[in-house]
Amino acid sequence: MIKERGYRSIELGGHSFTLEWADEESGFLINLICQDIPNSNLLTPDSIFRLHTNNSKTKVTIFFGNRCIYRGINRIHGLNIIISTMLQQLELLCTNGIFLRAALVSLNGKGAIIIGKAGSGKTSLTSALILSGWSYHGDQVVFIADDELICESLATPLLFKDNWKLPTCNDSLSDIQASEYNGQTILSVSDLLPDCVSNKNSVVPEILIVSHFESGASISITPLRAGLAAFHFINSILNKKKFNQSGLNKVGQVIKSLRSFELVYGNFEQLSSLNMLFSEYDELKPS
Fold it and tell me: Is residue 20 located within the same domain as residue 109?
């Protein structure tokens, strides 16, 4: 049961955010964002979000510090603004490592980073891996600290674009999880698969998957040379403007530690054969 008033604190890369709610409905919305993310133990947050609802008009009001960043009736849009604002702040704050636009999953201790351009099917691929038994760490960003080769992420809800839905889950979704805004659908991992595992721990990455969606294409997976993998990896870095030579050296260190692949597919149904496709490579097989 959600308390009428409360807060949750979450962190990534040594930086934390506090999300406060002023009523039960806004507490439910914050819980949707944070339900798979461990509570932060950092005492002083970098930023604070405050959220409350107006039951008479079903409006949601969201403050970031003293600034109102959303007031309206679309709760999904409001949640998306909170997540987007957090990621923008983390991009500015996380200067002591690599901050990637990427997803992170793991299987039997093997961490897999998923990268790709906007619209390349990263979220669809991530959801397919979850349904195939992989643990979910996060779908938006991945942080790798300068002084270690360990990945962290935020297990926020999956955000699908272009009115995409997972047909097998529609009957079990509540109104808020099935809601859409501007062609986007938000879906908590526990609704995607009630028995799935959201891994709250950091993980050592061993695999890099470059996702590429091309409508009508056949599904395929091929190994990538280190140079091409580094090219895609650098293009996914959000804080590369703050990079110096040590940052580039870190990229080289990460790429050398990974076995890299490019995965091309043309529709979501093809992803049901992932386990069979991965069986061709020892690095992608369950250990």
Answer: no
